[in-house]
Amino acid sequence: MDTDYPYDLISDPKELARLGEWNEEVYRDFLAYREGRITDQEFRNKHCVKVAIFCLDMTGFTVSAIRLGELESLLRIFDVQRVAVPVLKNHGARLIRAFADDLVALFDSPDGALDAALETNQRVRAFNASKLATPFPAETCIGIGYGEVFSIGPNLAMGDEMNRASKLGEDTARGYEILVTANVRQALNHREDVVFNDQHLDDLPFPFFSVTLQD
Fold first, then answer.
1. Which domains does the chain have, with CATH numbers?
2. What angle do CA 105, 47, 154 make, to 5 degrees?
3. Each residue of 112-136: pLDDT tens digit?
4. Whole-structure pTM value
């Protein structure tokens, strides 16, 4: 491919894979797409899946480190993981990954993701009310997306719905709040046990909804 870029570019998939973001096959396919040897649709046919994405963040990580010390702050993450992982497994999570104070899980359906979110909040509340909790326990903030994503990277989910779910869980949801994308809302129209509440933030360029249990 002709280019006027005067500097070196890494083009060895094996070397790129050492960065830990994608594997060699994905890097080979990126190069093939850039060089016109495969189409956008061919790349999607090979690497895309339709999943529900559960993104959990925890409140107060920085404040807890200041108030309680670094180790106690890390133990808050440990506690939430111990509570949440059995719930995610019980509701059929096909993948569970942890990074810092985040948990990401993938489900075949948004029903499984929502049920896991509702039960996770319930169990974390119960844990925080018990004698096992630290003096400044973590609360859970959950975002859920649903749709086609690229099954690549450490979480095997990269794309628009992953980005939206992450934004809702990590940056937008408050303690014990569950926020979902429009795709999730549409897919769960049949649910009569929950209420979807329209939400709006000026700095979020997409619609989203909070989920509460039906009274």
1. 13-38 (no CATH), 48-213 (3.30.70.1230)
2. 40
3. 999 999 999 999 999 999 999 888 8
4. 0.94
